[in-house]
Amino acid sequence: MKAKRGIINIAIFSILIALTSSCAHHVVIQQPPPPPVVVAPVAPYPGAVWIASEWRWDQKSRVYVKVPGYWSRPPRTQYHWTPGHWNRQRSGYVWIHGNWRR
User: Which phi-psi region, left, alpha or beta, contains residue 78 (left: φ > 0; alpha: ψ -120 to 50)?
Assistant: First the structure.
């Protein structure tokens, strides 16, 4: 029962990330945070892809907050996950969300 609840929570979280990433705000900061040390847990099922933690702009506190990593199933075969990254611009850095690519 716990495993089923965990899978449901991951699915809901994945949907929320997909919905919020399509409305992403590009907020510029002067210096990106240091890269996190990422240790993915054991895959919960065959074909699972680890989506490492990402950054989300929190409008209320006006800072980037770290969203924890999670396991996901690719939306289609032959898709791979391209991780998010900090993109340097003239005025500072902007977080570019990760996404599925063919």
Answer: left
